[in-house]
Amino acid sequence: MSEVLVVIDHADGEVKKPTYELLTLARRLGEPSAVFFGSPDQGDAVAEKVKKYGAAKVYVVDDAQIKGFLVAPKAEALQQLAEKSSPAAILLPSTFENKEVAGRLAIKLGSGLITDAVDVAAGPDGGAVTTQSVFAGNYTVQAKVTTGTPIITVKPNSAAPEEAEGAGAVEAVAVTVSDAAKGAQIVATQPRQSTGRPELTEAAIVVSGGRGTGGNFEPVEGFADSLGAAVGASRAAVDSGWMPHAFQVGQTGKTVSPQLYVANGISGAIQHRAGMQTSKTIVAVNKDPEAPIFELVDFGVVGDLHTVLPAATEKITER
Ligand code: FAD
């Protein structure tokens, strides 16, 4: 069976959910091998986790030469691994960093690249066919790479992780990183102050607020917390200085694809839709029954968010 490389998304060995989603999708194309960039000491523990989702092999790449630098060393390391293992496809979680790694890798391998897929399946010839939302969400397209090894970044929440036991055989991989790739070094990192909420792009539920909040995000945040959700915002809310740009959903903000997206006091401009319309279920609260967001929703509530959200929060908290 063809090997499919899946790059593990993790924070200091703590494997993140998008990895399991990618392993689930990779099994449609062949036999997944997971690639762990991290400390070799953590390799066995990581392998124990990813083998539950079908990883036959776990390539452990010591990130000592990689982690202090920007993306170029990771792309070089993946190139060496791909040249050694000749995979049928390479899947990476769609993060800002991974998309840059994937772009560099595609050039190095002379391969085609598809970013921000929301689904991956095997086509009639067994090759990867992706589904993507393009042109600010106006079209959904099926695409395939026709040159080289398909390199595909997949948005978080694109698939429900399904368990399947794999062998999880650990293999240490030695890579050589060129001096040129080490041209840009990270001198300091500043962890973002934790909100205690899930990361916006990975959350299963996102509750967003727009201009309709009038700058009072308390009902939005309260409702989000009752559901264990991440908080998002429209650009109008960000431009008004009510929320930081890191919370912005849309064309010039983050792209989210949660199981549930709740838009509150957001009109549904095309640039906002571009960042959220691949969400599985969309709910909107808006006091204007003619608001364009209602064209998109699965469920709509016509009402004032300052009344609707506290009432909904109370009901959920009671349960
Ligand atoms: P509005 O359009 O003003 O809508 C507010 C809504 O709140 C209205 O529908 C109103 O009926 C409702 N409302 C008011 N009060 C209440 C209440 N009490 N209870 C319930 N509902 C209420 N926008 C983004 O969001 N993300 C982007 O990334 C983005 N990128 C852009 C890039 C470009 C190049 C451009 C030109 C624009 C971009 N925009 C983006 C801006 C976008 O066009 C809209 O201006 C923006 O999304 C509007 O935000 P909004 O829906 O919060 O505000």
Automatic annotation (TrEMBL):
Electron transfer flavoprotein alpha/beta-subunit N-terminal domain residues: 4-190
CC cofactor: FAD
InterPro entries linked: DHS-like_NAD/FAD-binding_dom, ETF_a/b_N, ETF_a/FixB, ETF_alpha_N, ETF_asu_C, ETF_asu_C_CS, Rossmann-like_a/b/a_fold
Annotated GO MF terms: electron transfer activity; flavin adenine dinucleotide binding
Pfam family, one: ETF_alpha
Binding site for FAD: 211, 234-235, 248-252, 265-272, 286
SMART domains per UniProt: ETF (SM00893)
Keyword terms: Electron transport, FAD, Flavoprotein, Transport
One GO BP: fatty acid beta-oxidation using acyl-CoA dehydrogenase
Top-level lineage group: Bacteria
Organism classification: Bacteria, Bacillati, Actinomycetota, Actinomycetes, Propionibacteriales
Complex and partners: Heterodimer of an alpha and a beta subunit.
Summary of the function given for this chain in its UniProt record: The electron transfer flavoprotein serves as a specific electron acceptor for other dehydrogenases. It transfers the electrons to the main respiratory chain via ETF-ubiquinone oxidoreductase (ETF dehydrogenase).
Cofactor binding note from Swiss-Prot or TrEMBL: Binds 1 FAD per dimer.
Protein name stated in the entry: Electron transfer flavoprotein subunit alpha/FixB family protein
SUPFAM superfamilies named in the record: Adenine nucleotide alpha hydrolases-like (SSF52402), DHS-like NAD/FAD-binding domain (SSF52467)
Keyword Cell inner membrane assigned: no
